Amino acid sequence: ALISSLFATSPMQSVKAETTSNTVTAEWTRQMAQNFERTSENTAPEIDADFKVVAEDLWIWDTWPLRNRDGSLAEINGYKVQFALTASKDYTWGGRHDHAVIRYFISEDGENWEVGGVAYDPEKAYGSRQWAGSAMMDDSGKVTLFYTASGRKENETAQNHFEQRLAKTELYMFEDNGEFSVENTGEHQILAEADGTYYETQDQKTGSIIYSFRDPWFFQDPATGEEYILFEGNTAGYEKSLDPSNIGDEEFRATHDVPEGSEDFNGNIGIAKATDKSLDNFELLPPLLEADGVNQQLERPHIVVKDGNYHLFTISHQFTFAPGLDDGIDGLYGFVNDSLRGDYKPMNDNGLVVANPESDPFQTYSWAVLPNENVISFINEFTDNGEAIKGGQFAPTLEINLDGENSEITGVLNEGEIEYPETEEDTTPAWSADALEEYK
Ligand code: FRU
Fold first, then answer.
1. Where would a tag sit more exposed on the chain, N or C end, judged by fewer CB atoms within 10 A?
2. Whose CA is nearest to atom 9 of ligand 1?
């Protein structure tokens, strides 16, 4: 990284001083967010126009596999499970966000996926539609599905249509004699709402791009066992005037122009701590990382820990970079630190980890890095022989090597393929009949 927090008293510091060390907020500064370039290390190959279609009649986009409490990939007696945002193709490509429901997909080989039903009772779910999240199966076999409740089911207005709250529900998934089934009539609960202090509310928003309080991602810190949800937020309470620390060091600031309106771009990576193991109660903490003056949307944040390095990933768009940051591209961005909180450094100098090819800069989106260094995403929009194609299916998986501050794409797998570890263990979760009876 260009800036070091070792100089705690210098204006070059990239960490906002906070009262205790575990509330430090790292910064992605305008100085860091420069010179994004496609290279052989970060650029995915072009999509094959003949891509695999998992569900003919559905648009599929943001996707996440079922994981165990420690973040490893979960299986249910050999069955692999993914969740994804879906909408009927009766809706337009652009209109799909307004009709999103979370469906589950199952596979026996981690490559050929079969579409299942909606992962919950849509009548009971919060929001007029449900946006991205994460899913965790605990030792009892109970699956907690975290999601974004977008809008309101009742009394929805144009104003609260874009409201976002972090929510969860619980379900059970079974394999019995080769039959996969789901018990998913559980209650739903709102876990967190934008507080207006750390996290901007819709009312506090300025600028033209949608605000964010979405995409909850469950994370158990291996160092402490403490549990969190990470999410996409916007910074509140800074009165829309940028600190020098959002821009860069003194030398950079001397020549760098910050166009008016940049202060409206205030994306951050939010974090809330579970106050107990029930995961019913969360406390909002100051953001893990902020991009005030840099980018409006740090979407679907998640962490992969490798060799003691905490790799913090987020996806972002070209159009959500602040004015004057003209090299920004639709991509996967990463930051690295030696613990959960601290002075995260952008990987590969400016943060760019995965890009689409120049010829089709929007061909895939919503990358998620799994603990096995597979990177999943969905096929977005691309052109083939001059024809504009909307994908809406699983994209080819990338294999990536995370090496401290550096990363490199090392291979490409099939659409939706995930390399599950070979396991001799019995992966049947320990459901108890009593727990299930109680659930029902
Ligand atoms: C990313 C995203 C998420 C959101 C979803 C809405 O692709 O913008 O942040 O949950 O799409 O469809």
1. C
2. 299
